[in-house]
Amino acid sequence: MAATAGSNVQQKIAEVLEGMTFPAYMNNADNTKISTPVLTDIDSVRQWLEDLRWMTETECMTVLQGKTIQPEDGESLPSPVRNTKEHIKMVRKRAHIITAECAKLFHKLDKERWKKVHSNALRITCTIRSLLHDISAHSPNLDIDVFQQQQVVMEECAQLIKHVESIGEINGEKPQKLPMVHSLTCLGQAFTRLIDKVLAHEVRTIVEGVADSPSAYCIKASITSLVGVAQGEPQMCHLIVKEGGVRALFTICRQDTANFVKSQALRAVATLCSVPEAIAEVEKVDGVGCLTDILCDPLTTEATRTEVAGVLAQITSPMLDHYRHVSGFIENMEDLLRGLIGLCETASSPEVFLLGSAAIANITFLDSMASEFLARYQVARVLITSSVRLKVSSIFIKDQLCTVLANVAMLEQCREDIIQCNGLTVLVGCLHEKPPYNKQTERVACERVQQKAAIALARLCKDVITAGVVKQLKGLQRLVELCRKPKERNYSDSVLVACLATLRKLASVCCTNMLLFSRPPSVSWPVFAVLICYHFPGHPP
């Protein structure tokens, strides 16, 4: 019985297997061996699994959508800081519109266009009320002085409407213009003070986010908002400095645990230092000492050191209207220059080299002591070698390079370094820069490159051999061309004077004719320059 039952089971299994369809890969060419079937190879099982997947995914999605994803501790950015940048832009944009409308109303009052005064005044007051409503909705916790100023603005709006509603001829006389002008003036002044207070409150929120945020994410987001608000906006830079923005940023830079955000903080400092108040604040917090420590720290990354160079280039820029000596530079000058030269020597990109060389160039104008340090650390050799290694082509980089070489060429040690490192070739190449650039800033930079290259060559050519090398490099020919063709120098008189001085220096070194030191009154400067060049042996006519 048992054997018969076993054979029946095996027979049924065999029948079931024979009725199944198996993939082709399970049979070989000789049909001698068949692999054991897998459940997923059965059509009904595979269909059931596919249907099950859709049913379970739908159920899982329903459950997940009903749950909130909790952020990690400290990773959620407070909503006032998150929306402050956009809110500040909105407030300033609408304030500009209201100010423009007020100017138009003044013009209509001046021209006594009474029919349009009423509608314009109503539009201004309605726009102001709408703005005040949006400000209160965004920042319900405004300071008490902001609320008080809002009340003042509302009262001035009511006073203006009162005067406007009274427009009409009385006994044949025209409306009085003076009271309405006075009311509109008071409204404008009150509105300006209100906007300043509102912006100061928003800026304070960002600064507090920089100084008191509990996490790295919040600090980064706050600094990003700070830079976005201050970029190209002197008024906002003033407010940020007034609210302690510079002090908060340097506090972060001094923290050893804040390396993750130092580069951003330094970039924010450079942005703010476009206004004199920020540079004065840098002095108060010993910012130069802090920058020196970061720059000279061997553990500081290149990105952070590059941002330090950017700050130094900004606060020492001679192009600023408020250019002055910053306290702390003289005491830290040697360390700063050593760190900047090291940054240029190991620069991984032209952008890094640009900021480092710009800071060095600006520092050379601060004090004569800087030239001694530059000679000690072979700045000419480092800059020329690095510029060749990086294959720099930017006119702005060449501007900084020529500035440094021209300023240090008076020192004998630097002069020898420039000549030995093929610096004459670099300078003559800078003379051949062409002024037709697309942007005005590039054209001006090209003029500076030509002028400083000519000055550097004049200071280097103290002997016949050096002057002969310049002539062989076709530097003499280019100097004459710059003198004779104003278009080649973008019609710049400063380039003309520098080229004439260089030609005169070359003539004094190579010629014994003392008449070359004086120009006859009847001979123009370009012609005089050409006459000088003819005294060089072998010069083409």
Task: Give a verbal description of the structure.
This protein has 541 residues and is an all-alpha fold. It is 71% helix and 0% strand. It has 25 helices and no strands. α3 packs antiparallel against α6, α3 packs parallel to α7 and α21 runs parallel beside α24. The chain is extended, with a radius of gyration of 38 Å. The termini are far apart. The C terminus is likely disordered. One of its GO terms (biological process) is asymmetric cell division. Pfam families: Insc_C, INSC_LBD. It comes from Branchiostoma floridae (Florida lancelet). InterPro entries: ARM-like, ARM-type_fold, Armadillo, Insc_C, INSC_LBD, INSC_LBD_sf, Inscuteable. This is Protein inscuteable homolog isoform X3.
Brief sketch in words of this structure:
Residues 41-73 form the Protein inscuteable homologue LGN-binding domain. With 541 residues, the chain is mostly helical.
Output the keywords.
541 residues, mainly alpha, 25 helices, disordered C terminus, ARM-like, Protein inscuteable homolog isoform X3, INSC_LBD, Armadillo
Q: Averaging pLDDT over every residue, what do you get?
A: 82
Strand content: under 5%
Q: How would a crystallographer describe the biggest sheet?
A: none
Distance between the ends: 128 Å
Q: What structural class do the secondary elements suggest?
A: mainly alpha
